[in-house]
Structure prediction request, 179 residues.
Amino acid sequence: MEQEKGSRVDMESQTDWRMDYVASLENTLDFFSSLASDKDSLNYLLNGLKQDLPKLELNDETLSAAVTLMNKLPKLVRYIEAVEPFLDFASGVLADETSLRYLTTEMGRMTEPVQSTLDQGKSLLEEAKRRAKKDGTQIGVFTLVKLLRSPTVQTSIKVAKSALEVIDEKKQATRQTTA
Prediction:
């Protein structure tokens, strides 16, 4: 019974909040509607704005955009409120030298294996290029046949063949979904 009473109070407070919110929006829209229809007040405001702001062209398109923006404000506020804690956290981390140092150290540790692999690949490629420049022998059909027997070449060819098959399957799947 006490739970029902508590949930009823919660629902009533939510309903009151929503009603206040809707009333506030209606009042705001009424204000802007009456402002838009009152040419003298609008001209007075615009003349004041012209002095303070760059040129403002007030026409149907501008007013329509302003009303559309106002209608979308509740949704924008929800998104901003959802992102705000992350921004506060990021600002706090970026402002604190200890946190920033820790973050950069950890990022370095996380990328270290990838960087190591890239460095190994780069050195391997440079070594292969250096050796290829030194080697002046002609490559013929028999040399290619001999190379094809190498387990490394066999593995590389299998990987390339499989990659081409996967690409072909993906293309066919894409064509079937679009057809």
User: Anything to note?
Assistant: The mean pLDDT is 83.
